[in-house]
Design a protein that fits this description.
homodimer, about 220 residues, mainly alpha
Chain lengths: ~220, ~220
């Protein structure tokens, strides 16, 4: 399993990171196919082509793999909104700013990996409430706060008038994603949304949100 | 199992209907606890205190029970919007109409039985796409059309200006339910929303929707 010195060398560390990513990716596929309860650590190790010992060393147990999967996905979902906050200071209209946010937001949440994880967490959140709470706090709430910081800049610049930032984020997200995310959850495998449909959703959601929050 | 004449008499028919409801109610609890795959028809029959033969006669097989569960829940969800359409012709302002719809909509979808079914269908929609599609068409799309007919009346009366009814329904629903329904799916067992929180959601959603769709 490699000694301490080996793990400290850059190449070994990169190898360990790559193997961790490989196990996380494989785990999403296995959990999605069999459900959390129906998945064994044997299957998780086999799918990632690692020994069960390697899996245990990296994640502790099955719940540890699942938690790592959520952390990994949530970390990636949040990233793209950092650079957008800076752009909110430069754009010339509320429509331009909200549209930029909308494109990024819809793209992030409608990512097939994120949708698969969403389904998995919803399926298990009653039996494993701590996993549901982890996704909620690290994913949903964190992204909402990130979007809120961007909307706050548009409010500060008086391009929008937002009395309650948290509620405005929920309105923004709901207008954009209520239909696409439910469609993906219930009927997505039968008829996934096309790029053109998603563009229409972004367009309609941006227009309605700007109307709802335009300064009087 | 009762002969044809017995089933045709009103009392026997009522008994059969009551037993059917009893089986459907018990099935929701069992499916919720064990998942669809983890549930056997033995367990479904035992939970409803009926014989397996009675269960098979009423529903055919496990998938038949699940389909009946969805039909039953969706039929009940749709009912309350019929009388609201008539009220949309009498109310005096967009705010009054939208608020009435919002209270009914949030109450219907945030019903604990509906939320449990929603979680169950999302969990199984990849493996059983026809069950997901059934919920989508009989539940989601049907309720959306029902709400759309109400909003259309407010548009006809020029209390609102709605260029695209279907999209306006998605905006209405998303503004109201994006936060509460996701909270229920991911973190609901840890901290269910209070009545006061739901009232704030209804108030904020109504105000923002009316602003977004007010006639110019």
């Amino acid at each position: 399993m490699g000694n301490e010195n080996e793990i400290d060398s850059p190449t070994a560390r990169q190898k360990a990171d790559a193997r961790r990513q490989q196990m996380i990716r494989a785990a999403l596929a296995v959990f999605t196919a069999n459900g959390y309860v129906g998945t064994s650590t044997d299957e998780l190790a086999a799918a990632a082509s690692v020994s069960k010992q390697t899996l245990y060393k990296a994640f502790g147990d099955k719940e540890g793999v699942f938690a790592a999967l959520i952390h990994d996905a949530c970390d990636r979902v949040d990233d793209p909104f950092e650079p957008l906050a800076a752009r909110m200071r430069d754009i010339h209209s509320a429509d331009e700013g909200v549209r930029l946010l909308a494109v990024q937001f819809v793209g992030s949440i409608m990512d097939p990996r994120v949708l698969r994880l969403r389904r998995l967490v919803i399926a298990e959140a009653t039996r494993f409430p701590e996993l549901g709470s982890l996704f909620w706090e690290r994913g949903f709430v964190r992204v909402a706060e990130s979007v809120g910081r961007c909307l706050q800049i548009l409010d500060d610049r008086q391009l929008l008038a937002i009395p309650d930032t948290t509620m405005a984020v929920h309105h923004f997200a709901g207008m954009l994603l209520w239909f696409p995310s439910n469609q993906a959850m219930f009927a997505g495998s039968a008829a996934p949304m096309t790029e053109a449909q998603l563009e229409r959703v972004i367009d309609g959601g941006t227009n309605a949100f700007v109307r709802a929050y335009q300064p009087s």
